[in-house]
């Protein structure tokens, strides 16, 4: 199953290396990691998307993250009400003939064209990963020349519905 | 006039200090009494400061950096205090890697200082540059590179704190040469804040209550004591708890001595080469209370057969160990001593489990560790029993890894904690001799015996020079079967006797070697000569090296074959009294 885990970390040198090293050493399958600063100076937030086989392994992952000296807080927010966003830049082959058509394809996704050249368009799209996947699928037939995705960053919503199952450690 | 000048210059000189001076001062403030070190280019400023400071603590010069780190581990294991290492950059640091990993696996508090090239050339592949932070990140509890002199005292203080609290472990501090050389007149704040590091010491009362309830209901309860009992100094509490409810006690390899081996409730070590009574007690138990052990695979054997009927309770200071390998119903995150205190405060009305305890005792009586004596060549197990008898079981024993290690675990009965120094998790050959050096320095008044194999000894035998230099009366016993015995045993059992590269056909003359180091050497080749040789060894004041020629084909039994459950152990013999 796919889990979204966030970690609040102290922004010390080597913290990213320490965490990714631990993940690879313990054979966790990471789909994406995003890191960025927060509103507090010296504190960064990481968002991991991991593909994990069972709940035991999720617990192990959060515990191993927690064990790192520079990690302040770990949350598995998968089952919470969350907002999650990813950004992708996609360079699509386009001719003057197909340009308008592509424009039509991306419009419902609220994607934008950032750059136009004689034979390509650079498109920016932001949203949930499944929305980005859907757009990529639609753009594939035109020929994707280049693509980069940031990975998911996510947040719990301000208000949580009741009865949310949480993966917290019972200790 | 002259006096006036002196009074004028004196305070200024005192005030101006190098980073290296601050470093020495920090170690003094941590009450460090012994440092294991080896100089080199990047730590020259530190060694100069050490020289100028006129030996504020003893500095032990091992002969290889691997010797330093294992000595620091041995020191830490017997004293409970952090072992301290200084090595230079590049090869100095990389030579420590095995020992740092060993300390990580066995949770030993070690603080390692490595020199580093100057900050201006870091990243340029400078002479003797190695990415120490990158190299040691996966094998340390934490690591630091000092990039500003003002951080140095604070980082050192934090390093000692992290290494020695919670679940102990190695911490590396990488100090670039220019930081050590930099001159300052400032005093720096040493206050550190580690908001992400707050080990849980006190148990959750709810979980203690759940554990007590489980014990009340249990018909077949058993305790498993691991190294966590040693680290928490909880042997007395463990004994009180076991005696209060008459609970049979098994231990892990590293837990040996945390509960007296000679106690009537002691079933000894469980696992791959554990006792029949320990393994069967765990296999048949309906409640397994693990105190400070990490359910290592050498203990559990095939997981599906490990304690199949038991409710598992696990007391550990490291929450990540709970539920990692074995499903755990009752997790108690706490220091072992605190958790046992919590349990001892409750009076638990236990179901009658006397017949269960009696069965365990019966197994213990009828299926002890066994071996066959020979009239001629030395039986290695008997050799170890002889050492046990000669030292009244009071010696500190260190080992490498392999057959001799298992025989020492089986036949040297540990009745006291902090006496058993072995490489458990990593299984490091060459650990025994340097670890004995550290143990002897940490406990100068005690008898220290290094029981090593002929293979492992040759990995770090250069450290014999240290025994001579500091006149450390360590007794080194080479259990010499002219083979990498455990490798050979596996080849015999599982590879149809294809002894690929495991026979040490060209061992050096260990006696001449000892003499070369200025150490007394004794060779003993016949079983009948063992008592006299052992007497001679322990009546000698200084270091001794013994080349004990043991039976070559002896194997360690009982044994759980890889992939098998502990109840399927082979080589169990019933012995009628």
UniProtKB/TrEMBL annotation, chain A:
Signal peptide: none
A Gene Ontology BP annotation from the UniProt entry: L-valine biosynthetic process
GO CC term (a single one): cytosol
A GO MF term: acetolactate synthase regulator activity
Domain ACT: 4-79
Keywords: Amino-acid biosynthesis, Branched-chain amino acid biosynthesis, Transferase
Keyword field contains Transferase: yes
Transferase as UniProt keyword: yes
Listed Gene3D superfamilies: 3.30.70.260, ACT-like. Chain A, domain 2
Catalysed reaction, written as an equation: 2 pyruvate + H(+) = (2S)-2-acetolactate + CO2
E.C. number(s) listed in UniProt: 2.2.1.6
Associated pathway: Amino-acid biosynthesis; L-valine biosynthesis; L-valine from pyruvate: step 1/4; Amino-acid biosynthesis; L-isoleucine biosynthesis; L-isoleucine from 2-oxobutanoate: step 1/4
NCBIfam families tied to this protein: acolac_sm (TIGR00119), PRK11895.1 (NF008864)
Binding partners and assembly: Dimer of large and small chains.
Family: Belongs to the acetolactate synthase small subunit family.
Protein name: Acetolactate synthase small subunit
Species this chain originates from: Salinicoccus hispanicus
The organism's taxonomic lineage, starting at the top: Bacteria, Bacillati, Bacillota, Bacilli, Bacillales
Gene: ilvN
Automatic annotation (TrEMBL), chain B:
Pathway annotation from the record: Amino-acid biosynthesis; L-isoleucine biosynthesis; L-isoleucine from 2-oxobutanoate: step 1/4; Amino-acid biosynthesis; L-valine biosynthesis; L-valine from pyruvate: step 1/4
A single GO molecular function term of this UniProt record: thiamine pyrophosphate binding
Enzyme class: transferase
Domain Thiamine pyrophosphate enzyme TPP-binding: 400-547
Magnesium listed as a keyword: yes
CDD domains documented for this protein: TPP_AHAS (cd02015), TPP_PYR_POX_like (cd07035)
BP GO annotations: isoleucine biosynthetic process; L-valine biosynthetic process; menaquinone biosynthetic process
EC numbers, comma separated: 2.2.1.6
Domain Thiamine pyrophosphate enzyme central per the UniProt entry, residue ranges: 208-343
Domain Thiamine pyrophosphate enzyme N-terminal TPP-binding: 17-132
UniProt entry tagged with the keyword Glycosyltransferase: no
UniProt entry keywords in alphabetical sequence: Amino-acid biosynthesis, Branched-chain amino acid biosynthesis, FAD, Flavoprotein, Magnesium, Menaquinone biosynthesis, Metal-binding, Thiamine pyrophosphate, Transferase
Catalysed reaction, written as an equation: 2 pyruvate + H(+) = (2S)-2-acetolactate + CO2
Record note on cofactor: Binds 1 Mg(2+) ion per subunit. Binds 1 thiamine pyrophosphate per subunit.
Sequence similarity: Belongs to the TPP enzyme family.
Name under which the protein is recorded: Acetolactate synthase
Species per Swiss-Prot/TrEMBL record: Salinicoccus hispanicus
């Amino acid at each position: 199953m796919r889990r979204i885990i966030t970690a609040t970390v102290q922004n010390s040198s080597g913290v990213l290396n320490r965490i990714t090293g631990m993940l690879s050493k313990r054979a966790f399958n990471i789909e994406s990691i995003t890191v960025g600063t927060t509103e507090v100076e010296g504190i960064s937030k990481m968002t991991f998307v991991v593909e994990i086989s069972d709940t035991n392994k999720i617990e192990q992952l959060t515990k191993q993250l927690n064990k790192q000296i520079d990690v302040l807080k770990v949350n598995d927010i998968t089952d919470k009400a969350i907002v999650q966003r990813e950004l992708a830049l996609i360079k699509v082959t386009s001719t003057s003939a197909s340009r308008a058509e592509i424009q039509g394809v991306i419009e419902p996704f609220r994607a934008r064209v950032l750059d136009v050249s004689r034979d390509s368009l650079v498109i920016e799209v932001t949203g949930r990963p499944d929305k980005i996947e859907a757009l990529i699928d639609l753009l594939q037939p035109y020929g994707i020349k280049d693509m980069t995705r940031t990975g998911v960053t996510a947040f719990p919503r301000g208000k949580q519905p009741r009865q949310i199952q949480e993966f917290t450690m019972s200790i | 006039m002259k006096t006036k000048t002196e009074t004028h210059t004196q305070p200024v000189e005192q005030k101006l200090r190098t980073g290296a001076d601050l470093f020495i001062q920090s170690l003094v403030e941590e009450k460090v009494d012994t440092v294991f070190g080896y100089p080199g280019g990047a730590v020259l400023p530190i060694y100069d400061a050490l020289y100028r400071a006129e030996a504020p603590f003893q500095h032990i010069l091992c002969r290889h950096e691997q010797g330093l780190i294992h000595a620091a581990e041995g020191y830490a294991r017997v004293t409970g205090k952090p072992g301290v290492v200084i090595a230079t950059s590049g090869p100095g640091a990389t030579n420590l890697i095995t020992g740092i990993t060993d300390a990580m696996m066995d949770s030993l508090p070690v603080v390692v200082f490595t020199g580093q090239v100057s900050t201006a050339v870091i990243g340029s592949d400078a002479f003797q540059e190695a990415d120490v932070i990158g190299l040691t990140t996966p094998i340390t509890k934490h690591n630091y590179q000092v990039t500003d002199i003002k951080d140095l005292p604070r980082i050192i203080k934090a390093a000692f704190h992290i290494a020695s609290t919670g679940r102990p472990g190695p911490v590396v501090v990488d100090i670039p040469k220019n930081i050590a050389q930099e001159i300052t007149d400032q005093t720096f704040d040493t206050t550190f804040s580690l908001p992400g590091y707050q080990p849980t010491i006190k148990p959750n009362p709810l979980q203690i209550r759940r554990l007590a309830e489980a014990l009340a209901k249990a018909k077949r309860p058993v305790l498993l004591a691991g190294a966590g009992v040693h680290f928490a100094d909880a042997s007395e509490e463990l004994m009180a708890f076991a005696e209060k409810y008459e609970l049979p006690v098994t231990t892990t390899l590293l837990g040996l001595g945390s509960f007296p081996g000679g106690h009537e409730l002691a079933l000894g070590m469980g696992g791959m080469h554990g006792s029949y009574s320990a393994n069967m007690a765990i296999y048949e138990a309906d409640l397994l209370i693990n105190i400070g052990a990490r359910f290592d695979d050498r203990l559990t054997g095939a997981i599906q057969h490990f304690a199949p009927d038991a409710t598992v309770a696990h007391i550990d200071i490291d929450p990540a160990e709970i539920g990692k390998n074995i499903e755990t119903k009752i997790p108690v995150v706490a220091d072992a001593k605190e958790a046992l205190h919590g349990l001892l405060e409750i009076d638990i009305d236990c179901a009658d489990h006397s017949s269960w305890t009696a069965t365990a005792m019966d197994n213990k009586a009828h299926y002890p560790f066994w071996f066959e004596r020979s009239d001629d060549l030395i039986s290695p197990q008997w050799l170890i029993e002889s050492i046990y008898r000669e030292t009244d079981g009071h010696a500190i024993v260190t080992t490498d890894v392999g057959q001799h290690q298992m025989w020492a675990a089986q036949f040297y009965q540990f009745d006291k904690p902090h006496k058993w120094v072995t490489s458990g998790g990593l299984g490091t050959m060459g650990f025994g001799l340097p670890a004995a050096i550290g143990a002897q320095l940490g406990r100068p008044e005690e008898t220290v015996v290094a029981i090593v194999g002929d293979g492992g000894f040759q990995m770090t035998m250069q450290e014999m020079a240290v025994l001579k230099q500091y006149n450390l009366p360590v007794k080194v016993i080479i259990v010499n079967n002219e083979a990498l015995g455990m490798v050979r045993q596996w080849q015999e059992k599982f590879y149809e006797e294809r002894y690929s590269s495991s026979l040490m056909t060209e061992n050096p003359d260990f006696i001449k070697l000892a003499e070369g180091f200025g150490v007394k050497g004794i060779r003993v080749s016949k079983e009948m000569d063992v008592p006299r040789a052992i007497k001679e060894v322990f009546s000698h004041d200084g270091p001794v090296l013994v080349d004990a020629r043991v039976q070559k084909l002896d194997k360690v039994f009982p044994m759980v074959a890889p992939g098998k459950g502990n109840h399927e152990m082979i080589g169990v013999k019933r012995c009628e009294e």
